[in-house]
Every structure is written in C-alpha cells, then in structure tokens.
Write a structure and sequence with these properties.
AhpD-like; single chain; mainly alpha; 189 residues
Length: 189
Amino acid sequence: MSDFTLHRLENAPEAARPLLENSLKGFGMIPGLHAVMAEAPALLEGYQLLHALFQSSSFDPEELTVVWQTINVEHGCHYCVPAHTGIAKAMKVSDEISEALRNETPLPTARLEALRTFTLAMLRQRGEVDQAQLEAFYAAGYGQRQVLEVILGLAQKVMSNYTNHVAQTPVDRAFAPFVWEPKAARKAS
C-alpha cells in the first residue's frame, strides 16, 4: 500500500483547496486521483486544465473515450480504466465500446478502431509515427488537428496514470462496479 495522502478540503495544501472544490462541484465528490494530486497543486491544476481542454477538442464522447481508455488500458491503470468506464456511461457512450476498449477487442466501427490504432502508435512509438500511420488515420476521416489532439489526450493521461501507479490510488466507490485488471493478469488467474 502506498503512503501518499488522499487530501480532503480540510487538510489539503491551501493552493489545492479551490481545485478540490472544483472537483467536488464537477463530480459530486473528490475523486481519489484529485485527492492524491492535491499534494502538488500545480499538478492538479494542470490535470484539470488538460481535462477541460481535451473535452473541448473536436472529439465526440465516443472518441474521447477511445483515446482515454486506449491509453489507460495500455498503461494498465487500475484506477483510470474503471473511472473512465463510469465517465463513459455518464456521457452515454455504449457499453459495447467500453467493453471493447477494456478487453482489447475490436471496436464497432472502422473509424473508432483507426483512432485506437493511431493512439496506440503515438503512445508506443513516443510520437514517432510514420507517414503510412498518418495516412491511415487521415483515411479514416481524421486530420492534423486530431493528431495534435491525441497528443493532448496523451499528456493528460500520462499525468493521471503515472500518479495512480506511484500512489496506488484506491478506486472510488462510485467506480467500484467497473473494477478492471490488465489482460495479462486475467490470463494468469
């Protein structure tokens, strides 16, 4: 178990309190991730800003979910996969899409699959995608703007996934019904 503090409004660093109040207003609770990030208010502020910016990108709720969950699953984030499953439900994203992402099975449309494939390429190749990968992404109906917005989503998810790895953030009660473990761990058991 990690010894990272799960801050509440009362014990958080002063600079983090307004940020935790934003979390409380937005989610009706202070998610464990935000409670951990509050230790470094600049991290929490940056994460919240990137989250808002990514949500205002050109991606629709299904596409946001594909980018988020593709990264969460690839990183094996025990916290973010369940959290984003709950968020996807709240955004009215189909269970079919969520389950395909969680289980690494084909998505229901070629366009969404192209987005997952490109997101994985960006992540695994650290941005060093080749022209053929770009052309495949463009052929699916995406453009340069979406290439750059995938990078925005990656930046946001690195912040949350890495924080959850080092802090071993417990999954919030609200997301407990969506608990998840990586495919390799499921095969081993």
